[in-house]
Amino acid sequence: MDNTTTYRDAVREAIRKAMNEDGRVFLMGEDVGHYGGCYAVSMGLLDEFGAERIIDTPLSESAFTGAGIGAALNGMRPIVEIMTVNFSLLALDQIMNNAATLLHMSGGQFNVPLVIRMATGGGKQLAAQHSHSLEGWFAHIPGLKILTPATVQDAYDMVGLALADSDPVLIFENALLYNSKGTLDTNASALAIGKALVHKEGKDITILTYGINLFKALDAVEILQKDAIDAEVIDLRSLRPLDDETIMKSIKKTHKVVIVDDGWKSGSISAEIMARINEQAFYELDAPMARVCTVEVPLPYAKHLEDAAIVQVDKIIEMAKKVMGVS
Amino acid sequence: MELNLTQARDFYKQMLLIRQFEERCVELYSNQKIRGFLHLYSGEEAIAVGIMNALTLEDAVLTTYREHGHALARGISAKSIMAEMFGKVEGCSHGRGGSMHLFDSKTRFYGGSAIVAGALPLAVGMALADKMMKRNRVTVCIFGDGAVAEGEFHESLNLAALWKLPVLFVCENNRYAMGTALKLTESETEIYKKAASYKINSKQIDGMSVIDVAKAALRAVEDMKDGLGPVFLECLTYRFRAHSMFDAELYREKTEVQEWKKKDPLIVFENKLQEMGLWSEIDLKALEEEIKTTVDEAVIFAQNGTLEPIEDLEKFVYSEVSYG
Lengths: 327, 324
Prior knowledge:
The structure holds 2 protein chains of 2 kinds. By secondary structure, chain A is α/β, with parallel strands linked by helices. Helices cover 36% and strands 20% of the residues of chain A. By secondary structure, chain B is an alpha/beta fold. Chain B is built from 11 helices and 8 strands.
């Protein structure tokens, strides 16, 4: 158990390492300092690095996100923490109109090496203003890169990958994953941005997923095995850019696919992936593509309703069996 | 500030260049050489010239979509600005920005933002970076009176004051947010008082007087470089032309425009120079001729510019090289 750590600690370690190695890196956001971070990710960093580099901000998402962009333009490598994904909407002007466009509007003169981390996803009975999964929605925007670490290793690696990138990178951390444990090799070389990872090989059906639903998919696959269904599970890792190559390669092997998407179905990343499979690998399909998404409702408070709204293991099993033609 | 003849001639020349450049843009827009939105700076020249005079090339500038004057006064060539408006590769933003998005890394000119108040948070961050890196330079952020209604204005002023950042906030109060008068949208129309409420050193000045603006800007930059935190200048001004080329100006009286034209920054400055006995030393004819040549050459340069190949359309979305 010595080499296991929590997702939370992995993110913190990655930030600490980056701050030790590069004086341009700093962390800014609501309650990141004295409180230790809403999800305790930055606990202890204020004592270690001081208030100049672990900056508590007022509840001004637009201004401090924009300030992160400005600092990035002016030679720094800021990490902006937005407490939860719904609050990022208050900073959407800065993310969309500035971070994603400045390089282009300036004809390539000004790039924005900014990292924005935020907590995402439901499952904690936090109702309709703290629980949504908007990563697929952000992935619509050219100029941004969208990362969705699922594993402890990626929670660690993606901070470094994002900081090394010359352009704005948004990291969506599932709030329910912060306590999850996994192995971490801090010396391993990180899998690049834009590369998906085959977590479990299989020959019968491909399950494409990202974030917390990776673990639901892996649970589903174990049960499917009892029905002699050998599923392949791919963690997309990056929603923009998408790894078309890895996706199509798997489709060409299994000829069937279920996409597990934490967002709502309409205009979702799963819709985009289906369109790409249609464009690039339609004749490889032996069955209609299928998907499991969050039910199209603002997330409710009551536990039984929230559970019914979000992705669950049994929904993945049911959809995979349907695609396989077994019941 | 003691104004000598060289400086007087330079101020006048810069203001006249902006005026002539903008008037030429009107013609070019009518001839459909320039397209998109076009917002002209005529009437507000004293602010750009007075502010930029206080800066070094180390300092940074962020501004709005009515920024031709700021760009010219900052030292971006008329040629590259005109080429930008013609959508040519030789433009200061490679033809990707147009009139509203002029950028130039050489003069640290960070745009050209067309989201009202959208650049204020960036200015805060740029100044934060300078402070963290102990670089003694300032960031200037120019915006209009419309920006004060935006949340980003208040959030940014608070942060700049709280963190004592070297940001010079310059509000060009031309009395109208597009076509809606300030008095119809703000409970407090004395804008500098809003900034003062954030404990920012804040002044209201005559934005039609280049000397007043230049003096205030020099003082502000000096204070900021001494580590005294942000400064806010509310510059009272007026735009002589419509908001953009699609504005019938139904919201203001012609008599009001005429009254303000009496305060034309070029006339105000000419009168001042006459008082000081410097005006007779300036060869206006030669100056006008020189500026006409500059603008003519800019138009020719823009016309002869290159259209970017369509194959390059998807460039500049992500960095092609690592700036690491």
